[in-house]
Design brief:
Strand order of the largest sheet: 1-2
Number of strands: 10
Strand content: under 5%
Distance between the termini: 120 Å
Helix content: 55-70%
Oligomer: single chain
Length: 1609
Amino acid sequence: MESVVADDVVKVGVVVLVGGEVRRAVPVMRRERRMMMVSKAALRSRLLGDREVRAALQNTRTASLLPPVGEEVFRRLTPASLGKIQQHREAEEVELQARRRSKEVTENNQAKPARDLEAGKPLPFFYGNPPPELLNTPLEELDPFYKSQKTFIVLSKDNSIHRFDAEPVWFLLSPFNLLRTVSIQILTSSYPLYVFTAIYTFEAIIKVVSRGFCVGKFTFLRDPWNWLDVVVIITGLLTAFVDLGIVLKTVARVLKIITFIPGLKTTVGALVRSLKGLANVLVLVVPVLSVLALAGMTLFMGYLKSKCVIQWTEVDNVTGSTGINYQESINNPDNHYFLHSQLDALVCGNASDSGRCPEGYICLKVGNNPDYGYTNFDSFGWSLLSVVRLMSHYWENLVQLTLRASGTTYLTFFVLVFFPGCFCIFSLTVAVVATLSSEREEAGFTELKRREEEFAQILEAIKRSEEGEQAACRAALSPEPDGENTESVEAQRSCSPCWFVFADFFLKWNCCGCWRWLKQRLYSFITSPFFNLGVLICLIINIFFMCMEHYPMTELFERTLNEADLVFTLIFTVEMLLKLVAMDPYRYFQVGWNIFDSIIVAVSLLQLTFDTHGLRWFVVMRVFRLARWWPSLHMFMKLIWTSVRTLRNLILVLLIMVFIFSVVGMQLFHQGFNDSVCRISLDCQLPRWHFCDFFHSFLIIIRVLFGEVIQIMWDSMEVSDEITCLIFFSMVLVIGNLLVLNLFLSLLLSSFSSDCLADPEEEEKSKVKMAFRQIHRALGALLGKSTHVNPDHTDNKEVPSKKGDHGTLTSASWWAPTADPEKMSEDDEEKEKKRPPADREDPPEDCCSDKCYRCCPFLDVDTSRGRGRVWSNFRRACLSIVQHTCFESIIIIIIVLSSAAMVFEDVHLQHRQVLKTVVARADQVFTCLFLMEMFLKWLAFGVKKYFSDAWSWIDFLILQVSLVSLAADIFGLSGMGAFQFLRTLRALGLLRVISRIQGLRVVVEALVRTVPSMLDFLLVVLVLWMVFSILGVNLFAGRFNYCFNETSQTMPLPEIVNNKTECLWLSMENDTGLRWKNTKLHYDNVLSSFLPLLQLAAASDNVDIMYSAVDATWVESQPIFEANQYVYLYFICFIISSFFTFNFFIRVIINHLQRDKSAGKMIYRTKEQQKYYKSVQKRLMQQKPVPRPQNCFQARLFDLVTGRPFRVFMVVMVCLNLVTMMVETDQQSDQMEIVLHMLLLAFIFIFVAEFLLKVVALRQHYFTDGWNILDLVVLAYSFLGIVLNDYFEKYFVSPGFFIMLRVVHIFRLLYWAQGIRKLLNALLLSLPVLFHISLLLFILMFTSSIFGMFNFAYVKRGYSIDDMFNFETFGSSMMCLLMITTSTSWDGFLIPVMDTPPDCDADMENPGAAISGNCGSPTVAIVFFVTHIFLTLLLVVHLYIVVILETFESEDGEPLSDDDFQMFYKTWKTFDPEASQFIQYSELSDFCDALPDPLRIPKPSPITLAHMELPLLPGDRIHCSDVVQALVTQVLGDSGKMNSLKARMEEKFMANPPKTSCEPISSPLQGQQEAVAATVIQRAYRKHALQQRGDEEMAVQSVNNGGGGSALQ
């Protein structure tokens, strides 16, 4: 930072800059930042020479870092300096012993190194620049912490600190040794750079000499990887003369690693080539993002500048003056309202549903935008950045700010426009990357298969050649003993003879006969079933004991756990020793599980021997021994191992990328964070996320890869260059996410190999099963039962299901008892329709079961006569009512209305008596209607069939809840806790809609079928999380507690309150409101540890739990800022494991879907949706052609407006119109507004001209195209917007919003690109399924929001729950559920609803409500949040899977349908009115030009028609079938669809054969070739004849000339 606080506040400025004790007073800090500034030199001189400043800073950390006044700052290291260090050490040891005797020393108040003087950091500015002669020279320590330690520092040219030990190196080289001094100078100077540059130059020279420079295919410059060498050499050479920046040098040097590691170049090349496939997605992404950015700019421009400002009268009263400048007053941040510890003022709005200001404040549009001014929609660039932010994990803050400023009504816009648009972009990107990864995997598999075949052929040839030699050798040699054969086999291994000697002597224990007898007995014992079962039981009990550790524990309990740990360690040690003796080390260590067990046992013994708590984390790995007997866990572990081994190159590329960006980020931004930290931090301390060192830079890159980029980018932009930050973070986000996505999908695709699906060792499983079977037999023998089991009998024999089984959700519905509508064939449907109504009605089934009839015979009546007949007819009537389609529609309406009535049961209902009465009466009416429905179905279907269906049970249970709640209201018992909880279950009422909508039921059935696989997966995940939970308990149990001041809402510094004892003592002595608290998410026991792990895995903003862990020190001690920053690695490991578990989760779902598909089941689709799918697939490429008008003028206009150039021109006009809208800003000048308005009028004139041209050319057909209707609506709204602009902007949407809809013309033009067409087709074809899954997601959100409103309406506000986002009303509850559903900061909603006293008041009166208090329920909250998160995650994953599977399966639809052939035949009739099936070949060009697309071949087309090779019939005629087959081949090519289409066409023509002969005589191409040949022959003959005639004439002339000469002579 180039300037600091003014001279009159130097003392305050020094404290602020160097991190003294600073109070978080936001307005005061802002005033200090705006004071007069002075230079660093003035502040440095005051710090080093002013005793008053030293006195003001005597209790701060800065005072200890400064040298005494008048003493030199930098001093050379001398032997005398080492003597002073020894004296300091002795004095410190004496003082420390004295403090220990007085028990004044603790772990927290011990001296620690200064953060500003750590190795690798730049020298703080107040030290100044060292003299040049002291650079790269050993100097005395500046950090007081190292004054008593034998260390010294060296300052490099850029003032970076390097720290060294003063002890002799190798016990020989002291700091004053010449060799070590020279080495230090080389290390801290730039000499190594020149050395490496020379090495790289020598390498490049060798390559150029051996390969050549550029001439030739395999020369030096023809390889792009060699360009890296050129860049490295050039930058290295120029660095000596010009400062090129270190970024270019770093990137090029690190990328050279790729050229040296085998396989990396191939991987990087494949990734680069795969980027070509993303071009189609990029073409779609750009217009979509542009439209969304323009929509945001149109709707929310300038809204986020609205802030809560003190009202003018109050400002006047406070200041006591009347001459106040109003503009200065409202723009002064001191007059704005700030929430606690927030840098930005509270955003507000003036709409009825926007955020409100506190009393005494008014909402005004003043000041800057939030987040340093970067969060806004005021221009196209910032709006585009905000749209990109909506696609990240930090979108909820932007939505909250926008809704608070503009109103909650705009939430529908986010839900219906922004989120679907972002979903389409991301889903299509995932689908394309998945396709590219699949193609890459398939190509690799094909290449591997080819190599295996070649290798098998080579082996077969070698085997055949060696068979003779081996036979001769066997005949010549006598048979050897088995031991010698074994040794000969072992000798063939690639090991030295010494190894076999060592193995025979040390690893094979066969010393005597008694020992061998003991080994045989022990081997029989360890291979027995009960031994394996005993080991498994001991392992499970050991895991149970590990999970029992918690905080706080009594000494007795802790001693019990330690003894149990000792017992289990001995048990597993004995197991290892028994196996070693029985199997010998040679055989024991050949089994991988035995090696794993031995390592765990060795670590356990070390832990017990040396009492080393740090090895505890490794002992927990014993849990993974369960994989030896658990197939799913074994498969998961093998999946991870094989995937990492297979994709090691891709993982290594990702790590290289992370390293490069970490180093580059540190080099680009560390100076900005050091100099300008006060811009982003109230106390001028470095934030948790910065680029000042490599570790923090590495953490930032990891965090960006997980999508949390916005807040870090804002801070970096504030302290550094904005453009540089945007480029850097954009590259990290795009490249990093592309690599992560490739890695994820490659893992997913590679996990389907057969190797990963192999079960664990069958021998181990069979032994455990055998043990259980023997125990079962023994118990049966003791109980006197026969338990003989046929060994040939299989346990998994399937029991045939009964025909009438309705016990699952996937059974047939009871309102269609005849057949499953999805399985009925079309013939059966036709037969069913032809049956008379009397025959179609099935008789009602029996009301009760056979057991009921046997118990109560009077229930069994004869339905053929008398009262029984009347009863039967009555049931038939009820059945006809229930089976009527209108009945289900009415019930759906009633369900929706009853659910809508619950929306009004919010906290305001008690104050609206009329509405309360209406809701109560409506609840009674709906309950009665549902009761009547149940009785009708009982009468129609019978009680037996009604309760045999799972959906009926759901209806019955929900109805019983309503009846009990209604009875409780009648008898005045609704205030009891049990009845209140039952009343909240009425929120499940909307779930009854699922069983009545076929599409929803199919989706639910598909989800239910995955439940068994999901349960197995959940058990695997729970075991993995249990390992991290046990580790978390060992690391953080009791360390998340902290002392908190309830009055000031701050946490006292560790220097004031160090531990729990001091906090409680101060609280009792001074009554300052201090409380010793614990975080809601903690690791005090294993069960509570699962909740923070769920937050880490499923929430995007999961940094709070990390901060608590990083700041944790010791048990019951006050946290210290970043006391142990390397704890981040624990969370990184867990997030990486979550990456694999999520991959495994998707793999389980896709596996199940593939099994359903292979079994012939329809996935997600009903029969109607399947028909829609096929019809849309046929018609995606079809457009009914508009007939060309007969009028000449209209025909020319028709050709103009339907041509591709006109469409392109209009799309260009639309884009230019959008560009003019992009130029608009919030605070633009009047001249700019006039220019933009004139341009808008010009574009409207162009669009009006387009409208008139199209109406004249297309006539009434203009209104049959949806694109034209859209243009007309936009045009009409634009006209009305010009006339009634203010009225529209006030009550409706701005006209500019509808103008943006014209951009869809771009998609109409881009649809003809094959790749884009495939993506759009996949999206269109998946729309019905996406709609039903989205509808199911909405039902789940609606149900959860009602449940949350019933349970958490009165909880105390805090964290994310405020005046707008809460559970008090249905609208605010839906907004909260939207954020929870998208896995954003849902912990901000979970923590307040888990409040219990004393964090809340359980006796607080809620006016008008039967519920008292503002506390929550931890149990209900955890169950509610976990259930909702899991269900929504399942549905969201299925949303993406639908699009991905559709992209894999789509083949652009069928380009030709029956409509195309009908248009072909219709056009043929105009050329063949007599239906002879023949036309003249001369008419073919006109006929092909008259056809509609895609069969049309526009004129002129003689070459195309000639190459179709149509057979010519006598009279130069061509047949209809030949023409259509040639045209279809022209469209489809030689694809597999040709056979089916050819068969269909032959059937049509064989039904109506031609009247004349169809024997061809030639083809047009053959005729043209004959004509060309004849022309060539004629030309050659004419040339030859002319040449021969010329020769004869010359001969005659020569003869004549010769005769004349002789005569003259």
